[in-house]
Amino acid sequence: MSFQAYLDTIEVKTGLTPRALLAKAHERGLDESTVKAGTIIDWLKEDYGLGRGHAMAMVHVIKNGTTISEKHVGSDGVHRDVSTELWLDGKNSRPN
Fold it and tell me: What are the residue ranges spanned by the domains of the chain?
C-alpha cells in the first residue's frame, strides 16, 4: 500500500482527514521532534482504532511533514506513489 493509500484509508476509518489528525496531534504536543513514534501509535490506536501500519503513515507526516522519498514515486507495485508530496486535505478533494 502506498503512503497516500494509507492516508486515504485513515480518513475512511476515522472520519477525519489526515490534516485534521495532524492538528489534533499538534494540540496534544505530539508533533515535537522528541516525541517517540510509540506514543503517537498508542494515541492513534486508543482514540481511533488505527493499526500500526496506518499509524506509522501518520507518524511520518507528524514528524517529517508531507514529503516522502522519491524511491516510492513511479516505482512498480502496490507501494507506488504518484508524487513526493502527500495530500492531507481529504481523498475526495485531491486534484488529479
Answer: 1-65
